[in-house]
Design goal:
The chain has three helices and six strands; from the N terminus they run H-E-E-H-E-E-E-E-H. It is α+β, with helices and mostly antiparallel strands and about 160 residues long.
Length: about 160
């Protein structure tokens, strides 16, 4: 019963969750409300370093507002030059467009979702198949051991 529940969760859960990628925005700025990431340039690292931490590489979050001079973002993650990241809980930050070197938008990746889904379904099928077929050994015998090997010798008076 648990295997069937797990199989249903994987089969229906993977496509619903999906796989997303950050893709560069070309030309048009992302729509307000979309998930975005901004690569921060050197001037941005200096200006934002005091409030967001030193050596910022990239800022991720949901775009709340934009105009020609700035972006207002509900920050979810900050990635650093040395590696690592810091998770935020949607704090509102204003980022000047002069501090941004590249903009990325989070988009659904159908190819990745199909590949991950196929792998998950294959793994579930292998587990279910193995539990149905079994190992072929069956239960151990419950018969008492053979007594024909016991040697009885008569007593001598």
């Amino acid at each position: 019963m648990r295997i069937h529940s797990l199989a249903r969760l994987v089969v229906f859960g993977i496509p619903l969750a999906g796989c997303y990628t950050l893709e560069p925005v070309r030309g048009i700025t992302p729509v307000v409300g979309s998930k975005v990431a901004f690569d921060v340039n050197d001037a941005g690292r200096v200006a934002l370093g005091g409030s967001m931490g030193p050596s910022i590489l990239q800022i991720e979050g949901r775009l709340l507002d934009r105009d020609s001079a700035k972006y207002v973002v509900a920050v979810s993650d900050v990635h650093f030059l040395q590696g690592g990241q810091e998770t935020w809980t949607g704090e509102k930050v204003s980022i000047s467009s002069q501090y941004v070197s590249s903009i990325y938008e989070r988009r659904f990746s159908a190819t990745r979702t199909v590949v991950v889904g196929a792998i998950a379904v294959g793994a579930i099928a292998a587990i279910v198949g193995r539990s149905i077929i079994g190992s072929g050994e069956g239960e151990p015998s419950k018969m008492p051991p053979d007594t024909g090997l016991t040697v009885r010798r008569p007593r001598r008076p």
